[in-house]
Recover the amino acids of this structure.
């Protein structure tokens, strides 16, 4: 019953969010003309590739940021957190519609963790949307480094997490910890930390079957991302061209992955992606620090005038 209600909610969110972002893009369609044809093609490719990878368990946020840099897509750093949430919402909702109900999970655990992540994302979006570029660069770089580290320690090659747990739900203090943890992950999603890997690690450490993380992960992202996305859209803190083309071609990427490679072995590819995300995180932090250093060398014109007057 709860799964049927959730899927109905996903359909409603899909239609409502598509109308919301569509209206914003239409009202500001002149913005699309400012984006070069080359960048639009790159955004479409990134949307397809990143959401293809997301569907098979690689994740999308870190990959999109890395691809923006590698392909020299012109997106202002300050807008990247909002762009990630706004442009991946429809593909993530489609993932949840396609995959939810395939894996058993306790309904109470599922609903509470989805709700807490959604509340966290709404609060986080309001904070991130108001940050200046230097703060966003530092937060994004730190967030990506955390995401890459979590992806690394949860990688199957290391074997650090128990794959034999049998619980499909939580209760008592463990449920409280999981709800608070998912709230924090919802906040961090707005800074660019993907929820999948840390959520999987958390439920495993709390004793749940690691497969039960999948409906929780997908359900959380399917609700929190459009919730945060709408907040970023209202604050005009996202790139509209990316919002259009990554969403549209991301849907095609989800469908291609769902139809073709659900059982693909991606463990080796994950190692490469982890290294790329670390590199991107380093560059983000370096840019935030270099800007601060440049700012420290700006000379106040009033001070300069006083020096000249004194001479």
């Amino acid at each position: 019953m709860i799964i049927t209600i959730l899927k109905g909610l996903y359909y409603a969110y899909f239609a409502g969010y598509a109308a919301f972002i569509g209206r914003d893009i239409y009202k500001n369609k002149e913005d699309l003309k400012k984006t070069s044809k080359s960048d639009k093609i790159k955004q479409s490719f990134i949307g397809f590739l990143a959401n293809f990878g997301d569907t098979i368990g690689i994740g999308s946020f870190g990959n999109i940021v890395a691809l923006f840099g590698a392909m020299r897509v012109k997106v202002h750093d300050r807008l990247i957190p909002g762009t990630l949430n706004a442009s991946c919402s429809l593909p993530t909702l489609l993932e949840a519609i396609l995959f939810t109900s395939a894996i058993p999970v306790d309904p109470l655990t599922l609903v509470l963790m989805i709700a807490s992540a959604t509340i966290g994302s709404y609060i986080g979006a309001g904070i991130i949307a108001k940050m200046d570029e230097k703060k966003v660069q530092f937060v994004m770089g730190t967030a990506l480094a955390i995401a890459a580290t979590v992806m690394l320690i949860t990688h199957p090659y290391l074997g650090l997490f128990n794959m034999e747990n049998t619980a499909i739900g939580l209760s008592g203090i463990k449920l409280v910890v999981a709800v608070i943890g998912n709230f924090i992950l919802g906040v961090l999603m707005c800074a660019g930390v993907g929820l999948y890997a840390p959520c999987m690690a958390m439920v495993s450490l709390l004793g749940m079957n690691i497969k039960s993380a999948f409906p929780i992960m997908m359900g959380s992202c399917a609700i929190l991302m459009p919730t945060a996305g709408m907040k970023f859209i209202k604050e005009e803190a996202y790139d509209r061209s990316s919002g259009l083309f990554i969403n549209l071609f991301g849907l095609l990427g989800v469908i291609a992955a769902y139809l073709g490679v659900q059982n693909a072995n991606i463990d080796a590819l994950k190692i490469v992606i982890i290294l790329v995300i670390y590199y991107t995180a380093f560059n983000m932090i370096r840019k935030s620090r270099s800007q601060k250093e440049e700012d420290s060398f700006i000379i106040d014109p009033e001070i300069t005038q006083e020096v000249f007057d004194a001479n």
